[in-house]
Amino acid sequence: MQTSQTALLAAAARAAHRIVDGEPRILDDHLAEPLLGDRADELVAYHRAHGDHPILAGARAQTVLRSAYTERALTAFVHRGPSRYVVLGAGFDSSPYRLDLPGTPVFELDHPATSAAKQAALSAAGLDTGAVTFVPVDLAAGDPLPAFDRSRPTFVSWLGVVMYLAPDEVARTVAMLADTLAPGSELVFDHMLPPELRDAAGNDYARQVGAVAAADGEPWRSTFAPAEVADLLTARGWKVTAQPDARATVPPETWERADALRPLGLSALAHARLS
Ligand SMILES: C[S@@+](CC[C@H](N)C(=O)[O-])C[C@H]1O[C@@H](n2cnc3c(N)ncnc32)[C@H](O)[C@@H]1O
Q: Ligand 1 centre and the CA of 139: distance in Å?
């Protein structure tokens, strides 16, 4: 298996947000570009040249909105007391190296090839990985999660991954997390909506980007309505605390802007807590 191309594209979208989009900025991921290494110029160039294109602007909106929501929730979580941060399907997410996470052990889980590429990129960028444990997993194969000690609650960020798993693989992972983690742990993930719950821009995006992802060997394999996600989580011990769509993750005035950045009606977030 090769390095996840969709992980590189997500990091490129976060890097390009700083360059192409105006105010208000939704996320300031200054490490996204360094982590792309020698692919950075090429991958960010598409956004520089065609930043107003709805697919590229949609990709930027999608990636920065889900990360910004999750990083706000994570920051609040770690400042409430001792905690652990698990990045599931981490790709080139730079949050462990960018955020103030005092005393918080971090676990990055991903496919072995992508995890190895990430570690090489971190090393080349001179970033300190001392607080981070890298764990290779294939969630589609049902690999077990590490046996986290239950002395502290865990915050799990699972962004841009669920659509690459079949519904039963998503359910199994949610159940494994509930069985493994301490009460008070939180989980945030995004999922694609079914076509009838998307808007026209979301359906265009799904047609075009879904085809590119599939051609790269990463087909989208699941969609969920928010009610289905709520049932799936509740049945496995999670209490749903929020399910915002992309637009609703930021204040309405965020969308009073002169650039091309627009939320897509394509996906929603799920935020849940273990009691
Ligand atoms: C679109 S990228 C998102 C990466 C990162 N979370 C982000 O938001 O930028 C999808 C990630 O999911 C990982 N992934 C996909 N299927 C997986 C599986 N079966 N097991 C583990 N990781 C998987 C990929 O390797 C890739 O890093």
A: 10
Which of 254, 85, 97, 75 has the alpha carbon at shortest distance from 154? 85
Distance from the alpha carbon of residue 158 to the mean position of ligand 1, in angstroms: 8
How many other C-beta atoms are found inside a 10 Å radius of the C-beta of residue 216?
Answer: 14
Q: Atom of ligand 1 at shortest distance to CA of 158?
A: 6
Phi and psi torsions of 240, nearest 5°: -75, 130
Considering the segment(s) 5-274 as one domain, its CATH architecture is 3-Layer(aba) Sandwich (3.40)
Encode pLDDT of 76-99 as tens digits. Answer: 999 999 999 999 999 999 999 999
Cross-strand partners of 232: none
Find all residues with CB under 8 Å of 231, minimum gap 6, and list them.
none
